[in-house]
Specification:
mainly beta, about 10% helix, seven-stranded mixed sheet
């Protein structure tokens, strides 16, 4: 098992090769992104061993050849005495990018299988159970006998301590070595400076620079090229999410190549043409070839030898079962592919995933007839087919599109799939990606349909979970989705909108300003007040201390005029540099735009980055101590987060209090499709604290004037059914307007094919008559100026009966 960053990063040479700061201090050699010790075996020739010699295998995680001339590998006993010496084996040549380099060591009297032709040969009789091996720049023997002493020797490039070795990386050596077991690094070659974490014990798998394996087998010859071994794909996949053969070597696994990936995480899928009768055990598996392009084609009948590995894209995701460091024999080509498994509304269960009370579901037996994620896991690496699927998440910049195979599952009015509770997941959603460059993903909007059949291999990644790697795509049927235009407010109505404009700053292209401006002037019909989220400082991500955003707002308001809207004025409080979260250097903040021809802003001095605004009771009602102002800006609820902006407005002589919000993001929450069920929503804690602060402030306004007209709005980054919303509305101080819409219209954002609500407008009981609308212009479209749809409420401030809507 291994957990790693995305492979595209690893293959770019970003693997750090430094020794542990625990076992070896920071003075140790500079990090290496190239050569590492990939396998160590000291049991060669011992009683019970198969191989006749010990060996050390090197690998290169970099993108260019790593020269070894003048280098050496050196060995020290696991518990060195005063007389113990490092034993040196000199190296020559180089190790290719992504390749291996084999150093043979002493032979014993046992064993029957020779190593592949070594690239270098030493005479060191290594212990099978405990020792330290170092890759050294130079051939002079090392003199250090402890981890701390070795830290001072900058010639050490990499180091592995196994068994009970005193000298090792990390808090402990890697264990499990024996006459029949080596220790080997994961296929990613990742080095976290902890031998126990980076390497694991298993059957020895020596590979030389030519790609040959033990017994003289070549890279296309796993030792018995025409006969399959005893292990089948379904044996590898097993009946749980983790292979029962994880970490073990397999030989001659038969299958038909069903898909080939030549970029990113390179490799290919094989599928057994003769499946077993157990629906839990998958018949497909991914063969990871690392930096090497796969030398197979769809339809090839192959035998694959290598090591079984569970690859976790991140710590909270499920894993992908793989065969790594493969040796492949092509037996024949042009074979018929196994028939795809049909995924449709009848075959996919309505229950989403079993519960483990927040723990890992890895060890739970799969139940594909009951749970959708269990079904998808049982089909991991298998050919599947979907037909006439409706698009529920528009085509992304990464050439992905979300569809549903359950057309009647929580449909929205405009063709999406509504996410309505934590317990009612949409099981028919699946992401479609193109595996074949000749069939690119079409540009699709929500409600469009991939007509006909789409076929490919079912895969898994950290960005949405299970996905179909398509080798054949259906035809796009355009549903002609249109961007909405809301009605113009009447003279007696105050129109207040919220719009997340996605990190807008003065350095953005004019096209972004123009599109966002048209959204305000045309689609929102020029509201009287617009509460903006994600306005950055004037130079965006440039981190030079700039905090003002007047140039950004000047460009934006000018663009609104050009689009036919009014000349808006603005108010904001600039954040302290680097204190409000968001994109580093961007100094994100909330801003009020208002049309001075229709509404007055009541300016009161005193509002700044750290002074809290308060409610002031007067004979004529409540006012603000400062306008604009901030709610409890020094509270830890707002640490590294944008602070709410409060403003006092007057419309037709009546005061209206507007609170612009942008709560903390959902970053850090465990995914819906992950290994931990139910997922932990760790980010929720902060939003609940923020909602409580806003609720407390609203209560102070209502305590001073129970009929105060309060509109709180913005990107709350949470759902109508969330604890955040419960905290914000505590005491019935505010009514969330999203729930006043028909259920199939309660959304403003689309994420991983789920139509959901993160943006909200809420009103106090003093707002008696209103007309509310979510204006869909972005979230459902592939071409979008922001990933959020704006919302608007039109309020009759002169309504006679407070609380009667």
């Amino acid at each position: 098992m291994h957990i790693s960053r995305p492979r595209s990063v690893l293959l770019a040479g970003a693997v750090a090769v430094t020794l542990s700061a625990t076992a070896l201090p920071a003075a140790f050699a500079a990090p290496s992104s190239t050569a590492v010790i990939s396998e160590v075996y000291g049991g060669g020739g011992n009683s019970g061993a198969t191989l006749t010699r010990d060996f050390i295998e090197l690998a290169n995680a970099g993108s260019s050849a790593y020269g070894l001339s003048g280098f050496s590998v050196q060995y020290l006993p696991g518990s060195p005495s005063a007389g113990s010496l490092w034993q040196v084996s000199a190296l020559t040549g180089s190790v290719a990018p992504g390749g291996r380099y084999l150093v043979a060591q002493a032979a014993g009297t046992g064993g029957t299988v020779a190593l592949p032709t070594p690239d270098a040969t030493g005479t060191v009789a290594m212990s099978a159970t405990s020792g330290t091996v170092a890759l050294v720049s130079g051939t002079t023997p090392l003199t250090c006998k402890t981890a701390a002493d070795c830290a001072a020797d900058t010639r050490i490039v990499d180091l592995v301590g196994y068994g009970s070795a005193v000298v090792r990386e990390g808090s402990g050596p890697v264990t499990g070595t024996s006459a029949t077991a080596s220790v080997a690094r994961a296929a990613s070659l990742a080095d976290t400076d902890d031998n126990a974490a980076d390497l694991s014990a298993g059957a020895p798998t020596p590979v030389n620079a030519a790609g040959e394996t033990s017994g003289g087998a070549g890279p296309g010859d796993p030792g018995n090229p025409t006969e399959p071994g005893t292990v089948r794909v379904h044996d590898i996949q097993g009946t749980t999410r983790v292979s029962p053969l994880d970490g073990q070597s397999v030989t001659g696994v038969p299958g038909i190549v069903t898909g080939v990936r030549t970029s990113g995480s390179r490799g290919f899928w094989i599928q057994d043409a003769t499946p077993d009768a157990d629906p839990r055990t998958g018949e497909g598996v991914f063969v990871f070839t690392g930096s090497t392009a796969p030398a197979v084609a769809v339809g090839d009948s192959v035998l694959v030898s290598g090591k079984v590995d569970e690859y976790y894209p991140s710590t909270t995701t499920q894993s992908i079962t793989e065969i790594t460091a493969p040796r492949v024999t092509v037996l024949s080509s042009g074979n018929a592919l196994p028939a795809p498994v049909v995924l449709d509304a009848a075959s996919v269960p309505d229950a989403y995933v079993p519960s483990a009370d927040g723990g890992s579901i890895d060890a739970l037996a799969l139940d594909p007839a009951t749970y959708a994620l269990d079904l998808y896991e049982s089909l991991e690496g298998t050919r599947v087919e979907i037909a006439d699927t409706r698009v529920t998440g528009a085509t992304t910049a990464y050439h992905e599109v979300w569809v549903t195979i359950k057309p009647n599952e929580n449909p929205t009015r405009r063709g999406g799939t509504l996410y309505s509770s934590y317990t009612d997941q949409n099981t028919g959603r699946i992401k479609v990606m193109s595996l074949d460059a000749t069939h690119p993903i079409p540009v699709a909007n929500v409600g469009d349909v991939l007509s006909g059949t789409t076929t490919g291999v079912l895969d898994y990644d950290s960005f949405g979970g299970y996905n179909l790697q398509a080798t054949a795509l259906g035809t796009l049927t355009d549903n002609d989705l249109r961007r909405e235009v809301t009605r113009k407010q009447m003279d007696k109505e105050l129109a207040v909108a919220t719009y997340n404009v996605e990190n807008l700053d003065a350095l953005d292209e004019q096209g972004k300003f123009d599109t966002l401006a048209a959204g305000v002037a045309v689609n929102l019909s020029s509201p009287d007040i617009v509460s903006l989220e994600e306005i950055q400082d004037d130079n965006g991500a440039v981190n030079d201390g700039t905090v003002g955003s007047d140039a950004t707002l000047k460009r934006f308001t000018d663009a609104i005029v050009a689009a036919g809207g009014p000349q808006y004025a603005w108010r904001y409080i600039a954040p302290e540099n680097g204190k409000d979260g968001g994109e580093p250097g961007g100094n994100i903040r909330n801003v009020f735009l208002f049309n001075p021809e229709r509404v007055d802003f009541v300016d009161r001095p005193g509002g700044d980055t750290t002074t809290a605004v308060t409610a002031v009771k007067t004979k004529k009602g409540v006012t603000l101590s400062a306008s604009p102002g901030r709610i409890a800006p020094t509270s830890d609820a707002w640490d590294d987060s944008r602070k709410p902006l409060v403003g006092e407005f007057r419309f037709h002589g009546k005061p209206v209090f507007v609170i612009g919000n942008h709560f903390a993001s959902k970053g850090g929450d465990q995914p819906l499709h992950g290994r931990y069920q139910e997922p932990t929503r760790s980010s929720e804690t902060k939003r609940v604290k923020q909602a409580t602060e806003v609720n407390t402030f609203v209560k102070s306004l209502l305590a001073a004037d129970k009929s105060a007209r309060v509109i709180t709005l913005g990107d709350l980054n949470d759902f109508a059914f969330s604890p955040t919303m419960a905290a914000l509305t505590d005491g019935r101080t505010l009514e969330p307007l999203i729930t006043t819409l028909p259920k199939n219209e309660q959304y403003s954002y689309v994420y991983e094919g789920n139509s959901q609500t993160l943006d909200h407008i809420l009103v106090s009981p003093g707002v008696c008559r209103f007309d509310y609308d979510v204006v869909h212009i972005n979230a459902e479209f592939a071409d979008q100026a922001s990933d959020h749809d704006p919302q608007i409420v039109r309020v009759d401030v002169n309504a006679p009966d407070p609380g009667q809507h």
